[in-house]
Amino acid sequence: MSSNVQSAFEKGEVLLNDAEDDVQRMKTLMLIANIQHSRGEISSAMHYIVRAQRIAKLKGDPDWIARTSGFLATTFRNYGLFEESKKYLADAETANEKQKDKASYSITRINIEQEKALTLINESKYKEALSHLKEADAWVGRSESMNDPRAIVAKATVYQLMGVAYYNLKDYVKTDEVLRVSLEKLGEQESNLRPYIYRVMAENHLALGQSDSTYYYLQLAEKYIESSEGEELKMNVYETYASYYKGIGNAERAMHYTDLRQKITAKRGASTAQIASELIERLNQEKQFAILNIKLFWVFGTLVLIGGGLGVYYLLWSKKREVAQFEKLLEEIEKKNLEQQNLLKEMKLDSFSVDKNLAADTEKRLLYDLVKLELDNFFINPEVSTTSLARDLGTNTKYITYLIRKYRKSDFNDYIQYQRILYISNRLKTEPALWDYKLSYLAEMAGFPTHSMFSVAFKNVTGITPSSFIERIKMNQVIALEI
Q1: Is residue 235 within 8 Å of 265, Cβ to Cβ?
Q2: Per-residue pLDDT tens for 215-257?
């Protein structure tokens, strides 16, 4: 993030694709959200952080609810939506209080106090901000995770923000002291916090009339903005450069950096207004959606009462049909599990001819590799395509289409849909913890982009809805326990 933000984003995407569980997925989603936020891609950042928070809430994980809520609080504050920011910060505090016995409690507490301080700094209430930063400093001393990268950055940020507060209070000696502590806390760890420290140090030395050291720290900060897409950092560094050159009497260079800053300021002002508008619209859509759900609930309730008699008759008929479809699906799951267990045993790769010019041998090898990929559940990758599968199997898309049609009796899209539904059905059958998860989360697990697409696909493949399938699984468990 500090030296090549585009490369950081690409690596984050790779990590997300390789995530093996929900914790890895949440970590990576929040990482990517931070990367996108640092480069000004706020809509994209919100997309990733909302996904992370959805998983956190589904799991009931207070640590990650606190982290994601804190991120949202910061985002709303940055774009002037202070009331919404305070709401999410309160959510973060509430969630964090539920994990007092965990090591992450103190780090999150530090971040919450920092966020409160930043709100006050934006309001030019520097003394009040310092009281929260001193509270954060007290938690720094209690933190046990001394070597955790997140803890290191959190601690360093406390002193960097103290530097901002003391600088604005014109206590330049204290400013220099706490900024050096910030760099000391950061140690050898690279972070996008470092250029912000250097920039405040440059401002502080400029205020002390020390032009040589001012230029030295500006150059340190400038190394980071060359590869950074962060507009705020560039704007701040250019402003200090303009003041520096004005102070040493170089009007031409001062005007150059003033122009650079003004261009970013104008661009940032327009984008900030647009993003704030989009965030407000998002909030309004969520509220309207909630109101619509309530209205639909009452309308649906009225219709149910009116059509009660017909509903009962249809319910009896549909339940009977559901039972038949459910039993058929269970049979298919068992059949697929058995087939996958036996197929690789039957297909002895060692017995294949090594002559790769033979089409039959190539076909067998590709089928063997396809079965292995199926066992690895390659199809749950939402980006899977004939091109990606062809690349994984070392062949072309035409051969993939041929292979799927011959051995799976389907076209590629229907094949992927079928595999995903049997995969998630099998997991639901064997993992009771998933029964209470939202359909949107189950859809994401199976590789579907939306829960509506997942529901349609589930019904197309199985003949029943995912909700009906889960209810049947629950009923079967109750019956088994009674027996």
Answers
A1: yes
A2: 999 999 988 876 655 677 888 899 999 999 999 999 999 999 9
Return d(Cα 290, Cα 437) in angstroms, integer: 19
- Domain coordinates in residue numbering, the chain: 5-283, 311-482
One-letter identity of residue 483: I
CATH number of 311-482: 1.10.10.60
CATH architecture of the domain with residue range 5-283: Alpha Horseshoe (1.25)
From CA 264, how far away is CA 52, in angstroms rounded? 31
Q: What is the pLDDT of residues 300-355, one digit of tens each?
A: 445 444 444 444 344 434 445 545 555 665 666 566 655 555 555 555 444 444 33
Quickly tell me which residue has 């090549």 as its tokens: 4
Tell me which residue of 43, 78, 115, 70 sits closest to 281, measured CA to CA: 43
Q: Give the chain's radius of gyration (CA, Å).
A: 29
Distance separating alpha carbons of residues 225 and 246, to the nearest angstrom:
21
Q: How far lies 293's CA from each of 111, 287, 289, 390, in Å?
A: 35, 10, 6, 44
What global pTM score does this model have? 0.53
